[in-house]
C-alpha cells in the first residue's frame, strides 16, 4: 500500500471522527437550549434562531455523509 493511500485513509478517518464529534456536540447543544427555554418558560426569537443554526449544522453533516462534500454555502445564507 502506498504512503499516500495510508495518509488519505488516515485523514478521511479523522474527518469522519471530527464530524461525528460535531454532530454529537450539536445534539447536546440543542438539548441544552430546549431545556433552557423550558426553564425560562418562554421562547425568544434568539432561541429560535439558535435552534435554526443548530439544524443547519446537522443538515450540513448529513449532506456531507450522503454526497461526500461539505456545503459551505448554507452558513453564508444564514448570515
Structure explained in plain terms:
The chain has three helices and no strands. The chain has one domain. Helix 1 runs antiparallel to helix 2. The protein is mainly alpha-helical.
Please trace the helix and strand order, writing H or E for each element.
HHH
- Output the radius of gyration: 17 Å
Treating each run of at least 4 consecutive H or I residues as one helix, how many helices?
3
Shape: elongated
Q: How many beta-strand segments?
A: 0
Largest sheet: none
Summarize the structure.
This protein has 79 residues and is an all-alpha fold. It has helices at residues 3-40, 45-67, 73-78. The protein has one domain (3-78).
List keywords for this structure.
elongated; 3 helices; 79 residues; single chain; mainly alpha
Write the layout of secondary structure elements.
Elements: H1 3-40, H2 45-67, H3 73-78
